[in-house]
Design a protein that fits this description.
This protein is an alpha/beta fold. It folds into 2 domains: 209 residues, Rossmann fold (3-Layer(aba) Sandwich), CATH 3.40.50; 152 residues, Rossmann fold. It is 34% helix and 13% strand. The protein has 18 helices and 15 strands. The strands form 2 sheets. The chain has an 8-stranded mixed β-sheet with strand order 10-11-9-12-13-8-14-15, sandwiched between helices. A 7-stranded parallel β-sheet has the order 3-4-2-5-6-1-7, sandwiched between helices. The longest helix is centred in the first third of the chain and has 15 residues. It is globular. The chain starts with 23 loop residues before the first helix and ends in a 7-residue tail after the last helix. Bound molecules: adenosine monophosphate (AMP). Adenosine monophosphate binds next to helix 3.
C-alpha cells in the first residue's frame, strides 16, 4: 500500500453535492443540513466510495468525514431499502465503529439526518446504557448500526445482532480505538463479518499499528488525505505560554477573562485534575464543567448539551472524554496540561478550527514539559515561539494609571480573523474589581493600636512574667496536661 503519494489528487473532484450521483432523497437531506459545497475529504472520498473502493482516510476531525463515508454508503444501500416492518428485511448492512460514546452518538445523529428521507433504519449502541431498549431496537431490524466495540460485542454475545450481511464497515478514529485498547475487540468483531465487504478506515494520525490494521483488514485501499498526516490544521492559531507550575490556574483564569473566548475545551491529563480544576474555575467565577470517564453517560450528555447551549464557558476534559466531540465553531482549546503523547496534541487542537472556521489553541507549558513540547514540535514540524503572560492580581483593584494599554498577554496578538463574531469582548465573568477608594488607600497603622504579638504593659505589671498572648499558655502547663515533667 502506498501511503506517501495520495493517489486521488489527479482525479477531477466535484465541487457541489448536486455534481454527485446521489439519490434525490439524500441530496434533500444534505440541503436540509445547510451544506452547499463539498469539503475536501468529501470531494475526494465520495466518488471513490461510490465506486466501491476500500479507503484509508487521513482526515482530521471536523473535516466533514462523517458525511464523506455516510452519504455513499446510504446511496449504495438504497436499492435494498425496504418499507416492510419485518425485521428480516432490515439486516445490518453497514456497521460504523467509533471509540467513544460521544463520537458514536455524533456519527449517529448525523447519519440519521442524512437518512431521514429514506426508509433505511439507523441505530446506535454504546455502553453505559441499559441493554434492553437496544436489544429491542436491534431485534426490530436495523440497516445501519453505529456502535462502540465493547457494547457491540455484548450484543454479539447475547445474539441480539447478526453481522452476517454487513457490506460496509467504517472504523472511525481508528487510532483512538487502538489507544483505548480496542484492538482485540476490533479483531473479534471483524471476524463476525463477511469477507466480501467494503472497509473504510479513518484516522487523524497514522502509526505503524494503524497501517498494520489497514493492511490486514482492507483490500487494496486508496489513501485519501486532505492534510498531511499528523499536520495540524493551518486555520488554528497555536500559542504556547511558558508558565510556572503554581501560576497555571491564575494564567488560565486570566486568559479566559481577557480573551474573547466565549467557550473553550480545557484539556487536562487526569480525571482527578479535571475535577479539581473545574471546582477551582467555578470558585473564580467561570462557568465550568468536567467531562471525564468517571461521569455517567447521562451526566456526560447533559454536560455536552449545556456546553452546546452556551451555559458553560469551560469544558474541562480528559482526552478520551473529549474525543469526537463536535461542537460547531468552538473558538478555542486550552491545553492546561501538555499531553503525554504528541499525537494527542493534534487531536486536541483539532477540536477547534473545524469545517474551515478559525480557532485558537493555547498551551500552558511548564519547565517540566520541555520534552513533551519538543516531541510535539517534531510531530507537527514547527517550532513554537514561547510566549509569557504578565499575571495581574485577580481581585486587587486596578487604578486607571496602572491599567495596561495593550492586551495583557505578551506579546499581544490579534485573534484569528474569522473569529469575528466571537471577537466581541464577552462580559467578564466572576469578580469585578472593587471601586471603593477605601481599598485603594495605602496601609496606615493606627498609632494607638496595640499589636497582639507585643507584651501589653498592663499584662506584665506586677508578676514580672513575660506574657506572649493571653491565648498562649506557658509550655510547662501544656506538658503537665499531657502528663509530662513539670506537672505540679
Ligand atoms: P465531521 O468531521 O464529520 O465531524 O464534521 C464536522 C462538522 O462539519 C459537522 O458539524 C458537520 O455537520 C459539518 N459538515 C459536514 N460536511 C459539511 C459541508 N459539506 N458543508 C458544511 N458543513 C459540513
Amino acid at each position: 500500500m502506498n501511503t506517501t503519494t495520495p493517489p486521488t489528487d489527479d482525479i477531477p473532484q466535484p465541487e457541489r453535492f448536486s455534481d454527485l450521483a446521489l439519490d434525490a432523497r439524500i441530496l434533500r437531506a444534505v440541503s436540509d443540513m445547510g451544506y452547499e459545497k463539498l469539503t475536501p475529504i468529501q470531494a475526494k472520498a465520495i466518488p471513490l466510495l461510490l465506486d466501491g473502493r476500500d479507503i484509508m482516510g487521513a482526515a482530521q476531525t471536523g473535516t466533514g468525514k462523517t458525511a464523506a463515508f455516510s452519504l455513499p454508503i446510504l446511496q449504495q444501500l438504497l436499492p435494498l431499502a425496504s418499507t416492510s416492518v419485518s425485521p428480516a428485511r432490515h439486516p445490518v448492512r453497514a456497521l460504523m465503529l467509533a471509540p467513544t460514546r460521544e463520537l458514536a452518538d455524533q456519527v449517529y445523529t448525523n447519519l440519521k439526518a442524512y437518512a431521514k428521507h429514506t426508509p433505511l433504519r439507523c441505530a446506535c449502541v454504546f455502553g453505559g446504557m441499559d441493554m434492553a431498549p437496544q436489544k429491542a431496537e436491534l431485534r426490530n431490524g436495523v440497516d445501519l448500526l453505529v456502535a462502540t466495540p465493547g457494547r457491540l460485542l455484548d450484543h454479539l454475545e447475547a445474539k441480539t445482532v447478526n453481522l452476517g450481511q454487513v457490506q460496509f464497515v467504517v472504523l472511525d478514529e481508528a487510532d483512538r480505538m487502538l489507544d483505548i485498547g480496542f484492538l482485540p475487540d476490533l479483531q473479534r468483531i471483524l471476524g463476525f463479518l463477511p469477507k466480501q465487504r467494503t472497509t473504510l478506515l479513518f484516522s487523524a494520525t497514522f502509526s505503524p499499528e494503524i497501517k498494520r490494521l489497514a493492511q490486514s483488514y482492507l483490500q487494496n485501499p486508496l489513501l485519501v488525505e486532505v492534510a498531511r498526516p499528523n499536520a495540524t490544521a493551518t486555520n488554528v492559531e497555536q500559542r504556547v505560554y511558558q508558565v510556572e507550575e503554581d501560576d497555571k490556574r491564575a494564567t488560565l483564569v486570566q486568559l479566559l477573562r481577557d480573551n474573547p473566548l466565549p467557550q473553550v475545551i480545557v484539556f487536562v491529563n487526569s480525571r482527578l485534575g479535571a475535577g479539581r480544576l473545574t471546582r477551582a474555575l467555578e470558585r473564580d467565577g467561570i462557568k465550568a464543567a468536567a467531562m471525564h470517564g468517571d461521569k455517567s453517560q447521562a451526566e456526560r450528555l447533559t454536560t455536552l448539551e449545556a456546553f452546546k447551549r452556551g451555559d458553560i464557558q469551560a469544558l474541562v476534559a480528559t482526552d478520551v472524554a473529549a474525543r469526537g466531540l463536535d461542537i460547531a465553531e468552538l473558538p478555542g482549546v486550552v491545553n492546561y496540561d501538555v499531553p503525554f503523547s504528541a499525537e494527542d496534541y493534534v487531536h486536541r487542537i483539532g477540536r477547534t478550527g473545524r469545517a474551515g472556521a478559525s480557532g485558537l489553541a493555547i498551551t500552558l507549558a511548564t519547565a517540566r514539559d520541555a520534552r513533551a513540547l519538543a516531541d510535539i514540535e517534531k510531530l507537527i514540524k514547527r517550532q513554537f515561539e514561547k510566549l509569557t503572560v504578565q499575571l495581574q492580581p485577580i481581585s486587587r483593584p486596578r487604578r486607571e494609571a496602572d491599567a495596561p494599554r495593550s492586551p495583557r498577554l505578551m506579546p499581544s496578538r490579534g485573534m484569528p480573523e474569522s473569529m469575528g463574531a466571537a471577537a466581541a469582548p464577552y462580559p467578564r465573568m466572576g469578580r469585578t474589581p472593587r471601586q471603593d477608594p477605601w481599598f485603594d488607600k495605602p496601609y496606615e497603622p493606627d498609632p494607638k493600636a496595640q499589636p497582639a504579638w507585643e507584651p501589653a504593659e498592663s499584662a506584665n505589671a506586677g508578676n514580672g512574667q513575660r506574657s506572649i498572648s493571653p491565648s498562649i499558655r506557658p509550655r510547662r502547663k501544656i506538658a503537665a496536661l499531657l502528663g509530662g515533667h513539670g506537672a505540679k
